[in-house]
Design goal:
190 residues; alpha+beta; Alpha-D-Glucose-1,6-Bisphosphate, Chain A, domain 4; eight-stranded antiparallel β-sheet; 4 helices; 23% helix
């Protein structure tokens, strides 16, 4: 990358898998998930999955941001915006709209994200504005066995005050299902 934009580190992105059993489970298609609190009203989750495809193939699929509507069933719109003045190479702007149902609430979520890319390795999503008090996501790709290990970390605080334990539980259930859908779309029947 050029310019003064840098990626920030996110906790726990490389902590999984912690054992040989977890690593074997990932290679067999399991999705490992670890949740943690992020704030009084937010949550954080790290999930990992194995894709039996080369990293460059996975990278090209993931950086096709309009295609994210296929990976995440709640996302209705995902589009790349024209670059803002001052953005450098490796940085894009993304607009996404999703319909979220949580407990007894149904709402539309809208976010404008700055997307920082390190080619073939990492994508970081940083909230510019939207219906979250804060939101960051970090997606990392690593060579693994004959394929790619994908680690996806998300931390968010909604603008509606909901205790973090409920947010964490929703993330723990939702992200693995979304990642299974992502894997099915990216590589078919793998």
């Amino acid at each position: 990358m050029t310019g003064n934009i840098s990626l920030t580190s996110m906790d726990a992105a490389s902590d999984l898998p912690q054992s040989k059993n977890q690593f074997a489970a990932i290679l067999q298609g399991e999705i490992l998930v670890e949740t943690r609190s992020h704030s009084a009203w937010g949550g954080a989750v790290t999930a990992q999955m194995y894709l039996p495809l080369g990293r460059s193939h996975v990278w090209h699929q993931l950086t096709d941001y309009p295609r994210w509507v296929q990976y995440f069933p709640d996302v209705r719109r995902s589009e790349i915006l024209n670059p803002k003045d001052g953005l450098t190479q490796g940085c894009k702007r993304l607009y996404q709209v999703a319909d979220k149902s949580f407990l007894f609430l149904s709402l539309q979520v809208e976010v404008y994200l700055k997307v920082l890319e390190v080619s073939g390795q990492r994508i970081q999503f940083l909230l510019e504005k939207g219906t979250f008090a804060d939101f960051t996501a970090d997606l990392q790709l690593q060579d693994c066995s004959m394929g790619t290990l994908l680690t996806y970390t998300v931390q968010a605080t909604p603008t509606i005050p909901v205790p973090s334990v409920f947010i964490e539980q929703a993330m723990k259930l939702e992200l693995p299902a979304n990642m299974r859908t992502m894997r099915r779309v990216i590589c078919g029947n793998c």
